[in-house]
Amino acid sequence: MTDFSAKSWIRPPxxxxxxxxxxxxxxxxxxxxxxxxxxxxxxxxxxxxSGDLWPHLIDxxxxxxxxxxxxxxxxVGISVTxxxxxxxxxxxxxxxxxxxxxxxxxxxPLALPGYIVAYSYLxxxxxxxxxxxxxxxxxxxxxxxxxxxxxxxxxxxxIFVLSCVLYPYVYLSARASFLxxxxxxxxxxxALGAGRWRTVWRVALPMAxxxxxxxxxxxxxxxxxxxxxxxxxxxxxxxxxxxxxxxxRSNLPGAAQIALVMMMFVLVLVAAERAARSRARYGGGxxxxxxxxxxLTGMAGVAxxxxxxxxxxxxxxxxxxxxxxxxxxxxxxxxxSPNLLVEARNSALLAGGGTVLALxxxxxxxxxxxxxxxxxxxxxxRLSTLGYAIPGTVLAIGLLTPLAGFDNLVDQAARxxxxxxTGLLISGSGAALIIAYAIRFLAISVGALEAGYGKISPNLDxxxxxxxxxxxxxxxxxxxxxxxxxxxxxxxxxxxxxxKELPATLLLRPLGVETLATHVYxxxxxxxxxxxxxxxxxxxxxxxxxxxxLARLSYTSLAGAAQGSRSG
Length: 568
Hints:
Blueprint: H1 6-20, H2 23-47, H3 53-93, E1 94-95, H4 99-105, H5 114-124, H6 130-139, H7 155-180, H8 183-191, H9 196-225, H10 228-232, H11 238-247, H12 252-279, E2 294-295, H13 298-334, H14 338-371, H15 375-384, H16 392-418, H17 430-440, H18 442-454, H19 458-466, H20 471-482, H21 484-500, H22 503-508, H23 516-526, H24 529-567
Parallel strand pairs: 1-2
């Protein structure tokens, strides 16, 4: 018989309390609470009400913002799927000219933030830019009014730009799935009379669906959080509306209310991804042998090569060439501005601080899972990674109230104790931005460190304890030395993402402080594209490092293993 007494209701919290007495678990709990704090604060800010602005938002802002956000999500979702999945299938299952190079090249657009690609295409596709000028020359038209392409500042332009940048998310996950699919299921379909294309449609794609949905969810979360490309290209999305309501209308509760609407989109996307994975029950069965590469020769091979080459050129080649030419022209005209070096230093310091904090918090979370493996620590680890799903604008608003409350508390204590005012210690400094970076990119740190711990045998912990080392000594002398590669990988990826981050940087940077990202944003907003080209190029060059590392790791762990199985 079920006991519904008061004592029985206390038991689960009591068990949790006993587990929290463990220092690693308590630390992981603190990290998870730290990540969730901005969301709770956002709800509190929105509950304050926005006065007479809310009717205006409902009548004039939200309908347009919801419609344009929905159009971007649907358009980019369809575009990246139609581009990434065929490319992933071609490089994973077919042999054609240039396949080895394109397998890596298709990842290169990850190095370019969406706002930089939008910044480049605004200049490239301008009526007086190189593309339209060349087309008029070929058609024999001298006046720009005689021939013009559709304005890139539109929904199609924004969908095009974001698709060029975000398709690698779907490509990477789909390619990994295609590489590890067992040949037995595909052979069974062929034995039952299904042709090659029907086998792909009815067997290979359903088995890859969970991976495709996971990559698509990441891409759509990036669309939802984008502010630079959307604003440059004339789209009034929810993210742009949050920014303008806060900055232009000085109405923080109104911005928080719109941000909560954005969080609903985030929850829907995450729930849809979880549902798609939970319903997936596909398995290769039988031998783990991957299918042999299908040779494509003649026109078929050329077509496959061109199909995979076009996304690389549009998403990486064209923007990079534009930035190079514009940067060279700017250097020849006025040299390198000293302000650019200051902005690069500011970007590096802020991103570096966020990296250190993200690594420290990520290590606490993964250490708790290692030392106290349980459903509780696993759940806390998952909660601590939710920051990556929170758009930068939403995170910035959610951090304002708790940081301001902390500053006021310290200031009040200092006044009462020492008779001095400390002012805004965190809210008015780069510390707020460092905290935002750490929460936003903690998922990257946790993921990399979990992978690092997965390679360390638990037997080493027992060996260290049997030799007289304490638990702390085992962490210091065993875990940390073996985790150097994972720590370095996590640090590099978090640092580069911090260098590229725009929405949170725009809203939380200290007064008078410019970074490379905000410099590019400002020049693009003013239409002075060449002046921001060098800053954009620096961001791209820094971003290339982790992309090439990711390509190398991905090729070694997946393609190399698949090729070894084929040869065996």
